[in-house]
Amino acid sequence: VMSSNASSVHIIGCGMIGTSLGLALRRVDWDVTLEDVDPRSVDEAIAIGAGRRRTADEGEPDVVVAATPPGQVGEVLAAAAATWTNATLTHVASVQTRTQDDAVQRGVPARRLVGGHPMAGREISGPQGGRADLFDDRVWVVCPAPTCAPDRVDQVRQMVRLCGARPVDMSVHDHDSAVAMISHTPQVLASVLAGRLVDAPDDVVALAGQGFRDMTRISSSNPDLWEEILRWNATSVTAVISGISEELSQLVADLSVHDDPPAHRVDAVRDVLARGVRGHARIPGKHGERDRPFEVISVMVKDEPGQLARLFVAAGELGVNLEDVRIEHVMGRPSGLIDLSVQPHSAAHLRDGLMGQGFDVRS
Amino acid sequence: VMSSNASSVHIIGCGMIGTSLGLALRRVDWDVTLEDVDPRSVDEAIAIGAGRRRTADEGEPDVVVAATPPGQVGEVLAAAAATWTNATLTHVASVQTRTQDDAVQRGVPARRLVGGHPMAGREISGPQGGRADLFDDRVWVVCPAPTCAPDRVDQVRQMVRLCGARPVDMSVHDHDSAVAMISHTPQVLASVLAGRLVDAPDDVVALAGQGFRDMTRISSSNPDLWEEILRWNATSVTAVISGISEELSQLVADLSVHDDPPAHRVDAVRDVLARGVRGHARIPGKHGERDRPFEVISVMVKDEPGQLARLFVAAGELGVNLEDVRIEHVMGRPSGLIDLSVQPHSAAHLRDGLMGQGFDVRS
What we know:
homodimer; about 375 residues; alpha/beta; eight-stranded mixed beta sheet; 12 strands; about 45% helix; globular
């Protein structure tokens, strides 16, 4: 359509994602204009270099991006389509099917409509959370409307690549099923599990350990935003949650015959757990390889300034790169067990080196 | 009953917990004898200083600990009770009601029986995972049989304290309800969620991000051990899981009216999410205080040896103690976003200090 240098984008919604998009495209000299129902958000996004305000007399942007929650995408894009008759229209919401249907019903021409979803959410909101490199190396799912013109899709893919992200084509349905399973349902389970604590006695709450914390970390997300996401992706979300609810009911039935249960009941419970092990093994490693077998070295450190530093300095001096770090805190104890994940070929070297320097290596 | 110096303990089961118990009590000069169905485990536990083998002619131990999975506690303690007519009998299993019932049914005298559960599990098994300080500052739930002699309970509490742990009395029922909620049900939810990946297309699996990883981390646990735990705590576990299954079914119903849903449906979904936020806020902070408001500073670092070290050295030199560290990896990107949790009064100092040294501080 046009060269990357010549392109212009109008971003509607100056939250964390919209602002990051502006910053990313300013890096490659796109002309970025910004809009938000809250003029202060526009001011803040402009102040950190994400773009500028549109003036009354200027021409069409090449691309319009609705960077809003899913419920506003259709309305925002319909207004944009009416104002600008040639711009390519896209969005960055985590729901595709209903946002696309809604947009088309509101008169957005399908030939100009390309849904998109950058998989780069963080728990930071507002323009201040915006970062030019938020999308670097992230997957950005691209969901063209079925009758969308191919050059419109190319244009969005190009924008995605210029943001540093990796465009991945999916149908709206496949996208919505995928995020229902890997994002929306986990959110629901975390909320439901954490919600059980509301009426729990203090001594029960006090027993919550690392496993419970990990399982409920995302439960502190914004209920209004998530209610909207779940409602807009209800078809896919309810399919997954119904399946899980039935699986849990079956598990309750299998566990309810607990005095001398028949073998098939025991097997059924074990199968649920074993499937979990197999499913977990499919989760890709940090660099994208599946099942990458890191070795974990556990070190106990005192909970004092500089103690973690000593450990990481030692690892760095030994020339070992840490693939992952987990800190397991012990309630009320001024120390923590640090799990260092390393490449297997580095493990013995790191373990010996740390022990040689007097570190309290545990495994 | 007896002074700590004079006490002796016989530990049956040289897994990670039994071996750690031996190591902990050797620190305070208890006479520790060890037994396991696998003689190699006893050898390994002895080799790292966890105790010694019993000889044929020696007298009674003061305390016998069954350090076995729940299904073997009753049998093991019944045999011990028959062999030694005065020893106090305890165990360290994560299920109390059925283990106690089973033991009593097998002839274990209730006046000598004190259930126990150290809240110190890690994902390491076997004697090699044993550590003398595993229990330091951990909660150790103590569940005496209803007709247990008070001096027996005191004796177990004393043993718990000598292990460095904090004894907390609970009824067997309260304990089992608590662990069903904060440990056993999270395990089931993690397994069920991860199990959904088994048949998922590759491009869906590839979208799994940090939230999904956190929600499924514990799903790689041993299915045989967990089947046994769930079955032995079936009454409490099924109560919690039934409740969650029903809540999920209701959520599906509330979400299934997605075109123009009545307000009470929208409110019901939002309430589930909002309850999660409230429940999450009750989880105690690292040092035991509730709702301790750490401030999070995010720093992007390159994924190279020494880079994490540089960051922690800088934090240490600034005199700031890190309360928690989270590393968010981005698939395929040779860098990671490090979230440093610090006391609010240290946040500005750390942020300014890191930025002054050229760190890529994100929030």
